[in-house]
Amino acid sequence: MATCQAGDFGTAGERFGSMFSLRVNGAIVTESIFGSADVQNDSIGYQSGGDVLPDAERKQASPSSGTSSIRSGYPVCCECVVDVPAGDVVVELTAVNVISLSGDFVDDFVDRMAVGSREIVILKMMG
Amino acid sequence: MGEINYTPFIEEEPFNQTGLSDRFAQLAQQGIDDLTDTAFQKGCLSEEHTPSFLSYSETVEFGTDANLTVSYESDWDVAGSAQTGLTYWNGSTSSTPVMNYPPNDGVWGHIQNGAGGNLVATLPASLDFTQNFNGRYGVSAVLVMLNVQMERMEVYDPANQDNPVAPSDEPGLAVCIQVSDDNVNWYHLYLGDSQYTSGSAAGNPPYRYRLTERRQGAAGVEADYTIKIGSDRNLPSRRDISIRTIINQSSISNTVNAQNAQGGLGSFRYIRGAVSVIKSGSDYNKKVVARIRKANLTIMCLRANEVNP
Question: What is the ipTM of this complex?
């Protein structure tokens, strides 16, 4: 399980959101992906004309972006239970700026995402 | 039921005849002779003695609508020009956010259920991680899981608190996990020191990173679309805040005392979810109220060895 404080920053008022997940031995664990593009977690996308719509309705994938403001950001929590092979196992919390998935450049000053406090907890259980 | 106490094998201790004989001797002398008849009732050896990596666990849940009657308030003293209540930027006297230095870094309060209950988990005894295996009840760390469902934020005129006003900036809610040894004085779990200083802050530097703090802004699709009380002064924002953390000896030694020196706590028994209200920018002199619909707190005392790189 991993949690962190995140924020999306967009001076132009358009934020495409971010996604988070756990990665085990280099493979993204699908069920750990944070956000499902529902109202609870979806960001609000501001078009330049001032429209305020959930990004899912704008056909832009941006689950888990938090708010329409950069003030406070939003909390992230990714969890999963997975079988792992014997030997060394690497578990990571990963994040992606969704704008990069669209093929656009990530501008340092326009489309930033930030992660503050973060923690990852691993319980190795023999079941 | 009687107890069986023996010295557990430590890591890499030889598992040989001598070691086993010692334990069997301890079992016979300290344990078996002390057992009462009730210890051999049906099921006692399967339920009480099943190996587990948990030595204790507890869950506290607040799930009723009474939670919404609780008002988490950050107010402004108009006459004294000072912050009051559960204020995150508790040193602010202007639109520039200022937080006082630890341990007064923000004013934090209990999450409450509206019926006199606080979201607090209580260990059976005070726990000191510096003790040996038996002294710390075999517990190496405590896993804490906190979930809070934020309901909405409300903004009022501090001079006339029945009068809702429009927010100038986005208010938010901060949530964290705190520990205490007396259920009165509560301590943050810090990660490290910050280099940032503020001449406007009261207390002693440095600022410290609150490891478990999570913040959630109120703006969102519900705040924009939901029918609101008082036009745009009530911000529905039903969002989940989930925090997971491990409390270990490092966590406890990083707590600070009233002078902001490390080592504020030696042991702890109580764990709580705490909240503080974020007033942003020019809303520093307004009254902002947060509402929480649901919350739950789970603690698990782990017997497992912990690796903390």
Answer: 0.79
